[in-house]
Specification:
The complex is a heterodimer of chains A (about 270) and B (about 525). Chain A is mainly α and about 270 residues long. Chain A is built from 12 helices and no strands. The radius of gyration of chain B is 26 Å and the shape is globular. The chains are: A mainly alpha (about 270), B alpha/beta (about 525).
């Protein structure tokens, strides 16, 4: 009988092809456009241009502000929810979790349109509160991404640690502050990275809620529709750099904490 | 009152929009995700005939910009000269007509684009089409870049009865396409018109008078704080801003009465001197804080639901908005600004990269233009999409009959006025054969938008294609308007930011400290 040779390596081929075609190559194209000008010559003008123009810098700041406030609001809303879900002994806990996840199953633009009508009821004229609208819209959109990782971390938390802390005389508050909170940092970090970065670029929310100020995503779009692929690519690259920087910072934290968990358990 | 129109379908009105059918079906307000990807239209494969010869024609048009058929019985346009009904899509009908007329099988591959810029980017990325339908400034750009194939002499031969375009195009449109040129080449050498229109203001007559709405200044007027919308693209906004800034000049009698008024008007409206760009930027920055939204599609819904009082609109979409509002017994009007209105033309052009010198292909492409220009087909398209065809009909009176069928006054109606459209249909503005008798209110409603009066046309200006240097400056101006300027950040915001960053760093540092302690105890 002829036996198909199936080594582990050959199983990986489709993924390797995928990575090259859809990750590595586009990145190279992006790099090429970011560092060339219209004539195809090498230039760093796109980079220096971004950091010397008060408008693009302002857009970066505005995006950061929207993303920061959104993340903060998400965190403040999500942590208590995740904590209650993880620690309570509710009979229908799964249903509750489902309720938080369910909005994600409904088309995004439909939800934002509904939100638009709701906000109109509350605010009267939507256009008077552009920043608030952006934050509310993004929070609504991204909240599940914050709840889930925190919930996962908290529900895997070893309850005996808290019991031990209480045995050693800690009250509820200090047990939470000294045990639960630090141990849930990995969840918070992954939640933050899943909210903060999309919030910097998701301009559809702003468009639909009539915030006419550009954020990073819309800026890239406007460069491309003005046929300036070079400027647009550079902004995409700068965003990528910010994301890598953020990941490096938090990755260190996450890993250390994983170690800390291990260390504490030992 | 206009007769029932567009009730069978969500017209969407493709000019520069990404349509979600849900918008109108669910009555929800503007919910396009500003997605403007091209979508492939699936066609049934045509059966091959023994002749064997088969031409593939790749067409790219605006979204929702052609009759796709499947009309309901009640949509039948019952003109005196016969009924007009859209049973199949225009594309299928063309394939059939071409086979019957020329004995050649043609297969149309039909795709769509969302904006002129999208189309251009698609072409740059290597998409190949034979026939596309961009707006005038974009086909001017394509002309300047030598990307187009000129229309053949046989296409312009008026003795051929199948040359519906040449025989039927409105004398007014023909004149525009003859009079405008780029690098010494006339538009008409390369482009055949499809739809045209003007820009103006749809407004709520309870809140604004017609005079108040008839100026571009309405967009920046603090009286309508956050209750007007402007278009989310640089060209339309630029035109409106120039109109508002130069309002005094444009309305002065000296300016209007000069002999070369039309030429001077076009110069003023296409003024891209650095000073003008700068003042437009300042003006639009103020407008940005005064408008409800910069919109491409959502303005129609916001107007119908009463969220805004006035809405910068293209005439075809204005007709649609007024129609839709009317169904809810909500009456909206249309005003064409006194300063000037931007007249635009979407035209068919053939691409060098697609045709590649193939005479069969070119023949099929030109036949498609002619087929769309056949008066009954022009009416079908107009009825379906709401825009105005460039076809007047020539000797064929059906287009004028259709306009009369749509807008003409009922016999017992009061307040009826004459509305001369000779300028469009015969080239003679006093032509008695082309005077409509319409309800007076229609002058500032759908009719006034779909077929603007000659007086409105006299103060219209096209917006030309700017060379790439000017274009870059204008685009940069637009980005500056829309961006948040870092110099506008007040001191207190910087202080708060600094504090927040410091707090974050402190927390980060604490975390690491704690980690070290854990690790320390471990070892």
């Amino acid at each position: 009988m002829h036996v198909l040779k199936f080594s582990r390596k050959s199983l990986g081929i489709p993924y390797a092809v995928f990575l090259v075609l859809f990750v590595a190559l586009p990145l190279l194209v992006l790099l090429y456009y970011a560092f060339t000008n219209g004539q195809g010559h090498f230039t760093v003008a796109n980079l220096t241009g971004f950091f010397t123009d008060p408008n693009t810098l302002g857009t970066l700041c505005y995006s950061l502000a929207v993303a920061f406030v959104t993340t903060l609001v998400c965190l403040l809303l999500a942590y208590p929810a995740a904590y209650i879900l993880a620690t309570s002994h509710l009979k229908r806990k799964q249903v509750l979790i489902l309720l938080f996840i369910m909005p994600m199953w409904i088309n995004f633009s439909l939800r934002i349109t509904a939100l638009k009508e709701l906000l109109t009821v509350f605010e009267g004229n939507l256009a008077r509160f552009p920043f608030t609208n952006a934050v509310v819209g993004m929070t609504y959109d991204f909240l599940p991404f914050m709840i889930l990782p925190i919930y996962n971390t908290l529900s895997r938390l070893d309850g005996s640690l808290i019991e031990a802390a209480k045995d050693l005389g800690a009250n509820d508050v200090s047990a939470f502050l000294k045990i639960t909170l630090p141990l849930s940092v990995p969840g918070i970090v992954s939640g933050v990275s899943m909210v903060f970065l999309p919030a910097m670029t998701n301009y559809v929310v702003l468009d639909m809620l009539y915030n006419s100020t550009y954020i990073m995503g819309s800026l890239i779009g406007s460069y491309f529709s003005a046929y300036n692929w070079h400027g647009g690519s550079m902004i995409a690259l700068i965003l990528l750099a910010i994301i890598i920087l953020f990941t490096l910072l938090t990755r260190g934290m996450e890993d250390d904490n994983q170690n800390a968990v291990g260390g504490a358990l030992l | 009152m206009s007769k029932s129109r567009l009730k069978h379908k969500v017209p969407g009105n493709g000019r520069k929009t990404g349509i979600l059918l849900l918008t109108a079906v669910l009555g929800l307000s503007g919910m396009t995700g500003s997605v403007s990807a091209s979508s492939e239209q699936t066609e049934e494969p045509s059966t091959s005939t023994p002749s064997g010869k088969k031409v593939v024609l790749r067409i790219c048009n605006w979204e929702e910009y052609i009759d796709l058929g499947e009309w309901e019985e009640s949509d039948t346009i019952d003109l005196e000269s016969g009924d007009i009904f859209g049973e199949n899509s225009m594309i299928d009908d063309f394939e059939e007509w071409y086979r019957d007329t020329y004995g050649i099988n043609v297969k149309v591959e039909y795709s769509t684009f969302g904006t002129n810029e999208d189309l251009y980017n698609m072409l740059t990325l290597g998409d190949v089409y034979d026939l596309v339908c961009p707006s005038e400034y974009m086909f001017m750009k394509l002309m300047a870049e030598k990307q187009l194939v000129p229309l053949s002499d046989s296409f312009k031969d008026s003795s051929n009865p199948y040359n519906y375009y040449t025989n039927g195009v409105s004398p007014y449109i023909r004149g525009v396409f003859e009079d405008h040129e780029i690098n010494g080449e006339k538009w008409s050498d390369y482009a055949a018109g499809y739809m045209w229109g003007v820009t103006g203001i749809v407004y709520n007559p309870d809140a604004l008078t017609h005079e108040e709405a008839s100026t571009w200044k309405v967009l920046g007027d603090p009286k309508y704080d956050r209750q007007v919308t402007i278009k989310d693209n640089v060209r339309d906004s630029y035109f409106a801003a120039v109109g508002a800034l130069k309002s005094d000049l444009l309305l002065s009698t000296d300016f209007i009465s000069q002999p070369d008024y039309k030429k001077r008007l076009e110069e003023e409206m296409n003024d891209v001197s650095p000073e003008t760009i700068l003042s437009v930027q300042d003006y639009l920055q103020d407008v940005k804080d005064n408008v409800y939204s910069f919109e491409t599609d959502s303005g129609k819904a916001d107007m119908i639901t009463g969220k805004v009082l006035a809405n910068y609109q293209w005439s075809g979409d204005a007709v649609y908005t007024i129609d839709q509002a009317e169904e809810d017994d909500y009456y909206l009007n249309f005003a064409i600004p006194e300063e000037s209105t931007n007249i635009y033309f979407d035209g068919w052009v053939m691409l060098r990269s697609g045709i590649e010198g193939d005479p069969d292909k070119q023949h099929a492409a030109e036949a498609f233009i002619n087929f769309c220009s056949r008066p009954d087909n022009a009416i079908r398209n107009m009825y379906y999409i709401g825009y105005t065809s460039v076809i007047g009909g020539g000797d064929d009176s059906r287009i004028f009959e259709y306009v009369d069928w749509t807008y003409g006054a009922e016999e017992d109606e009061e307040d009826v006025v004459d509305y001369p459209l000779g300028y469009f249909f015969s080239g003679d503005s006093k032509d008695e054969n082309y005077i409509l008798s319409v309800p007076e209110e229609q002058l500032i409603r759908q009719l006034g938008a779909q077929y603007p009066s000659e007086e409105a046309i006299s103060r219209s200006s096209i917006m030309v294609f700017f060379d790439s240097e000017k274009n870059d400056t204008i685009n940069q101006m637009w980005i500056n308007v829309r961006c948040f300027n870092i110099l506008d950040v007040p001191i207190w915001a910087w202080v708060i930011t600094a504090l927040a960053v410091a707090a974050l760093l402190f927390v980060y540092w604490k975390m690491r400290q704690r980690t070290k302690i854990y690790l320390g105890t471990q070892s």
